[in-house]
């Protein structure tokens, strides 16, 4: 294999005794913790094995045992309870670990569905099958699949939708490192781009412990004491661990966090030695040398080695001799060695992955934990003479590249070794000034509202333990990782303290349904572009400072305007200069802001279903809809601004809270006053000479009708603008308007722009004089598009209050990305969060400044699975006693035995049966086949996605339904398949089938 730059470890998840996750595992190692304890009562009772002598019984009484090895969130993976109970618990542990490992790699697990991701799992033995398949009367298809060692890998690929290689590896104690070796090969050959590799081990019976004792390999106290004078054999242990592997070049290109780099691996066999279970020094030397050669390093360059180190006299002696002959030569300092088995015990099929994760974390944190029992070094190993040393205290790694080794040897002679290196240092930042961190959107998803609350609590606790820093990088990682499940949560935050408080408040307040949002469709968003009157000095300056995306688009608008206005509108806005929003720059400034806001939102993936522009807002709307280019609109707006600013003085505008009918008589008496805008039933704007409008205002005041002078510099949208229309028409003549890509609701026409109507020179000239028919256009927009959200595009709210008085559907939500002078990045982030909660999947990367978040690789707490369901096996009994039935039992109790074939039809709720007997029969049958509680089999439950049914269960369901509905007759599977969308659709089909049978 050509290793090139190597293979990166980008994700890790594990669970070992007294270490529920990777962080707890590292903490256990750093403090030199001892994970050995008494055997759990649900496994076996050592006192009931009289055939074993005292030493054997002592060894059977202790070991390393996982807390909650029987826990499985089967609902999360849509695995029916009956199938879950039949599954080897090792398969269940791997499913949890696989999901969290992919999360830790910075990827949402669902995003890998359909990819050629490979899965390689080391697993030793098959205790689950031996415990259950011997009772032939109770064998089921679920138990057959659940007991297969091969299914440990296949189950991950199936549940997560991976289509790459999927295989289980059993080389005894070296299984999981051999699995990693195979996964590395698949990556380097190009067979896969991503690989999950690791192993699992559960101690479900004392059988192998008895074998160890008979071979003279069992430690009396159940502890491994590697390389110690106290070493007396093996103590069994269990655990699960998976790593996500990618080619180093791919991981760097995708900005993934890299724990360590696998630079070379090798696997060989002892061949015919002095016994199939005896280690072979020369084979061990060869596998280490081969791995170093493939890694391109000399053994003397290796700083430390995580040894196999079981704590057996023969095994430790041979391993130290092999390591010393290679790593002890030609070096100034002895090579440090240790073994995690001193902390955990021997995790057998998971031993290699336990060591690999330890090495990766040591390289990542740049400290190697001390080795337990190193204070009583075995003098017969002659470590110092061989250039080796046990770590009696943690070893701090020097700056720069570091190389480490890892060995794992199988009982049958299959040896594996890996050479790892520290991760490459990220390239230094090239920017002179670090960008100011803005607000981020922290996202979290789960499969149920309750699960969302549980995960909110976990994340809140994890974030609260962090120092107070900007939250943007952490939020970005949550967008990458914590999305894809049905129920959504999103909150904006600037720093970790604010984020932790928001997460805690959400987890503690209200019902889960009030926090969790499950959208069934994408939101339909319409953009409303603000007209003149909303401008103010310094508008959107805060957003410019905090949003890289907005900066990019405002810069583009400013560059487009610069040839036509001879000054930087952007610079004036950022300086808070009144000149930027006065005179002939007013309209260009409003256009620049509107264009930049719309382009920013569109870049985030918020593509409007329709656009509507109020007066000058129609220019930015036209660009957004693809009618005009940015340069065309900039030229036209600049010309319009100059022309309108050059109108004769004496014009004014008046806002009146009355409809046009109430003003008709007043307007008839004042020929120099005109309707300029119809914004709503009681929102009208008048335009005309200042004298005429003053007289109207006085009359309205006497009638107690509210009227407000708009302080407009001219009488826009009235005949008073006619002197400049020819020049405006000429300026617009250079444009080449295109057919809209997005529906445009014209405020000139008060309706959807027809396919045959063009926004050409005549349109823009007439638009400047005609009244703005905002209310009519908005009403037509609602009728045609039925938007769920209206987003105002402008420097502050002007149109949303009008829309709120327009009598729209109460379900329409109003949003604004920059609602006023105090607005910065938080308001924009909150808009994205609100749309995400209602079904939008934004382009999250565009929300963040890459100079702030690039290469951050923030680590999030892994998904917190439910602990409500537990499945285990009855404890084995000694041979001298009659063995009870050994079958998995589910907690809480299920309607039927999880392993048994479905029982005879159970009675159902008589009220349900009377109301819809066919539906009741279907629910009963589904509950039996899957061992579901009746209350979980609801009308809308989908057979494949929610209930996890497969072809075998469909056949069983068919039989049970026919037994419950004898008048139905025989129904073929082909007839059933189209109806198997949900429980309700199946009941509807069967009801119709029965009716047709009665008619026949």
Tag the structure with descriptive keywords.
single chain; 1000 residues; alpha/beta; eleven-stranded mixed β-sheet; six-stranded mixed β-sheet; 29 strands
Brief sketch in words of this structure:
This protein is of the alpha/beta class and 1000 residues long.
The chain-level structural class is alpha/beta
Shape: elongated
Cα gyration radius (Å): 36 Å
- How many individual β-strands? 29
Major beta sheet summary: 11 strands, mixed
Uncertain segments of ≥5 residues (pLDDT<50)? 875-913
Beta fraction of the residues?
5-15%
List the helices and strands and how they pair.
Layout: E1 7-15, H1 22-30, E2 37-38, H2 54-61, E3 62-63, H3 81-86, H4 89-104, E4 118-123, H5 127-132, H6 141-146, H7 151-160, E5 166-169, H8 175-188, E6 195-201, H9 207-214, E7 239-247, H10 248-253, E8 260-269, H11 281-295, E9 302-306, H12 313-327, E10 335-338, H13 341-344, H14 351-365, E11 367-368, E12 388-390, E13 395-396, E14 403-409, E15 414-422, E16 440-446, H15 449-464, H16 472-481, E17 487-493, H17 496-508, H18 512-515, E18 525-529, H19 541-546, H20 548-565, H21 569-574, H22 586-603, E19 610-613, H23 617-624, H24 630-645, E20 651-656, H25 660-669, E21 673-680, E22 683-689, H26 690-702, E23 707-709, H27 725-732, E24 744-746, E25 751-752, H28 761-769, H29 774-785, E26 789-793, H30 799-804, E27 813-815, H31 825-837, H32 850-853, E28 870-873, E29 888-891, H33 910-915, H34 917-930, H35 951-964, H36 973-976, H37 983-999
Parallel strand pairs: 4-5, 4-6, 9-10, 9-14, 10-12, 18-19, 18-26, 19-24, 26-27
Antiparallel strand pairs: 1-7, 1-8, 2-3, 6-7, 8-15, 11-13, 14-15, 16-17, 20-22, 20-23, 21-22, 24-25, 28-29
């Amino acid at each position: 294999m050509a290793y090139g730059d190597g293979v990166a470890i980008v994700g890790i998840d594990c669970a070992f005794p007294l270490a529920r996750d990777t962080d707890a595992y590292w903490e256990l190692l750093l403090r030199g913790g001892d994970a050995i304890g008494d055997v759990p009562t649900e496994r076996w009772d050592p006192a009931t094995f009289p055939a074993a002598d005292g030493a054997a019984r002592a060894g059977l009484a202790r070991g390393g045992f996982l807390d909650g090895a029987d826990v499985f969130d089967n609902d999360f993976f849509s695995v029916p309870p009956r199938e879950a109970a039949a599954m080897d618990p090792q398969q269940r542990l791997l499913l949890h670990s696989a999901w969290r490992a992919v999360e830790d790699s910075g990827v949402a697990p669902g995003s890998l569905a359909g990819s050629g991701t490979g899965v390689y799992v080391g697993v030793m033995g098959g205790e689950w099958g031996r415990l259950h398949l011997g009772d032939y009367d109770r064998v089921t298809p679920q138990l057959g699949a659940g007991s297969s060692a091969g299914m440990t890998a296949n189950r991950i690929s199936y549940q997560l939708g991976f289509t790459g290689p999927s295989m289980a590896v059993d080389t005894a104690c070296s299984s999981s490192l051999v699995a990693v070796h195979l996964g590395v090969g698949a990556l380097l050959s190009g067979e896969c781009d991503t690989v999950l590799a690791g192993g699992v081990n559960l101690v479900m019976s004392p059988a192998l412990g008895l074998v160890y004792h008979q071979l003279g390999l069992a430690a009396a106290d159940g502890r491994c004491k590697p390389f110690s004078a106290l070493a007396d054999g093996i103590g069994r242990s269990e655990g699960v661990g998976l790593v996500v592997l990618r080619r180093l070049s791919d991981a760097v290109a995708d900005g993934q966090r890299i724990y360590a780099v696998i630079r070379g691996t090798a696997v060989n066999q002892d061949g015919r030695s002095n016994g199939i279970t005896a280690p072979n020094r020369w084979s061990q030397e060869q596998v280490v040398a081969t791995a170093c050669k493939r890694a391109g390093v000399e053994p003397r360059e290796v700083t430390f080695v995580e040894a196999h180190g079981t704590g057996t006299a023969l095994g430790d002696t041979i391993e130290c001799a092999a390591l010393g002959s290679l790593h002890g030569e030609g070096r100034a300092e002895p090579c440090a060695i240790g073994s995690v088995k001193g902390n955990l015990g021997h995790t057998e099929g998971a031993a290699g992955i336990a060591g690999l994760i330890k090495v990766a974390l040591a390289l990542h944190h740049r400290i190697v934990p001390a080795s337990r029992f190193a204070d009583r070094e075995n003098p017969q190993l002659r470590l110092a003479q061989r250039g080796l040393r046990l770590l009696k205290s943690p070893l701090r790694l020097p700056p720069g590249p570091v190389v480490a080794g890892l060995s794992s040897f199988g009982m049958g002679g299959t040896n594996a070794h890996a050479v790892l290196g520290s991760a490459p240092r990220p390239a230094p930042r090239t920017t002179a000034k670090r960008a100011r961190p803005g607000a981020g959107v922290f996202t979290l998803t789960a499969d149920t509202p309750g699960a969302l609350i549980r995960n909110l609590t976990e994340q809140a606790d994890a974030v609260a333990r962090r120092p107070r820093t900007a939250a943007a990088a952490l939020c970005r990682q949550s967008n990458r990782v914590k999305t894809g499940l049905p129920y959504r949560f999103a909150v904006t935050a600037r720093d970790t303290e604010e984020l932790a408080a928001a997460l805690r408040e959400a987890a503690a307040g209200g019902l889960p349904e009030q926090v969790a949002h499950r959208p069934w469709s994408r939101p339909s968003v319409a953009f409303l572009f603000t007209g003149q009157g909303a401008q103010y000095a310094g508008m959107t300056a805060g957003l410019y400072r905090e949003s890289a995306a907005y900066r990019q688009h405002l810069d583009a608008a400013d560059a487009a305007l610069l040839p036509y206005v001879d000054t930087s509108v952007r610079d004036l806005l950022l300086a808070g200069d009144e000149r930027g929003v006065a005179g002939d720059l007013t309209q260009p400034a409003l256009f620049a802001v509107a264009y930049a806001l719309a382009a920013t939102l569109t870049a985030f993936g918020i593509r409007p279903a329709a656009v509507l522009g109020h007066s000058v807002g129609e220019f930015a709307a036209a660009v957004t809809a693809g009618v005009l280019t940015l340069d065309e609109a900039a030229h036209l707006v600049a010309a319009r601004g100059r022309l309108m600013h050059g109108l004769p003085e004496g014009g004014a505008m008046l806002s009146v809270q009355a409809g046009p009918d109430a003003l008709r008589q007043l307007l008839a008496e004042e020929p120099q006053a005109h309707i300029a805008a119809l914004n709503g039933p009681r929102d009208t704007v008048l335009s005309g000479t200042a004298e005429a409008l003053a007289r109207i205002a006085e009359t309205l005041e006497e009638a107690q009708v509210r009227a407000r002078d708009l302080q407009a510099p001219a009488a826009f949208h009235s005949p008073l603008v006619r002197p400049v229309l020819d020049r405006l028409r000429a300026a617009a003549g250079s444009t080449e308007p295109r057919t809209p890509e997005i529906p445009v609701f014209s405020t000139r026409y008060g309706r959807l722009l027809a396919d045959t109507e063009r926004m050409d020179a005549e349109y823009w000239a007439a638009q400047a004089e005609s009244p703005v028919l905002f209310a009519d256009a908005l009403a037509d927009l609602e009728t045609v598009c039925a938007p769920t959200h209206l987003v105002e595009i402008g420097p502050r709210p002007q149109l949303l209050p009008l829309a709120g008085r327009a009598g729209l559907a109460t379900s329409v939500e109003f949003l604004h990305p920059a609602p006023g002078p105090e607005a910065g990045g938080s308001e924009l982030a909150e808009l994205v969060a609100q749309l995400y909660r209602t079904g939008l999947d934004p382009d999250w990367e565009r929300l963040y400044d890459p100079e702030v978040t690039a290469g951050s690789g923030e680590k999030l707490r892994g998904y917190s699975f439910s602990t409500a369901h537990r499945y285990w096996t009855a404890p084995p009994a000694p041979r001298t006693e009659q063995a009870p039935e050994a079958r998995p039992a589910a907690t809480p109790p299920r309607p039927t035995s999880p392993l048994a074939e479905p029982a005879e039809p159970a009675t159902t709720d008589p009220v349900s049966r009377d109301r819809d007997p066919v539906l009741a029969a279907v629910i009963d049958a589904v509950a039996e086949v899957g061992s579901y509680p009746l209350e979980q089999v609801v009308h809308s439950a989908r057979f494949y996605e929610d209930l996890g049914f497969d072809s075998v269960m469909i056949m069983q369901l068919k039989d049970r339904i026919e037994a419950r509905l004898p008048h139905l007759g025989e129904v073929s599977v082909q007839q059933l398949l189209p109806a198997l969308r949900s429980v309700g659709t199946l009941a509807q089909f069967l009801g119709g089938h029965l009716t047709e049978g009665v008619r026949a």
